[in-house]
């Protein structure tokens, strides 16, 4: 599922956290919310970045996408 599809399914609090902490490691509870909304953080989608000891990170392109949403813009569909 694309980011455009699962993003609106997130709880508002998860979207707010992602916007406020854009680029930071995503905490496990927000990763669980993304997974429950249909996002596969273990997949090879364009928005999946790195996972490691510090947690899950979005790709640079996804960070830009979230920033665009935060600025009230409508990012181009992927």
Q: How many strands, which pairing sense, and closed or not: the largest β-sheet?
A: 2 strands, antiparallel
Overall pLDDT: 94
Discrete helix count: 4
- Residues in β-strands, percent: 5-15%
Helix/strand order: HHHEEH
Total domains, how many? Answer: 1
Backbone shape? globular
Distance between the termini: 11 Å
Query: What's the β-strand tally?
Result: 2
Q: State the strand order across the main sheet.
A: 1-2
Secondary structure class reads: alpha+beta
The portion of residues assigned to helices is 40-55%
pLDDT under 50 segments (min length 5)?
A: none
Rg, rounded, reads 11 Å
Describe this protein's structure.
The chain has about 80 residues and is α+β, with helices and mostly antiparallel strands. It has one domain (about 5-70). Helix content is about 40%, strand content about 10%. The chain contains four helices and two strands; from the N terminus they run αααββα. A two-stranded antiparallel ribbon has the order 1-2. A hairpin with a 2-residue loop joins β1 and β2 (about 55-60). The model has no long low-confidence stretch (mean pLDDT about 95).
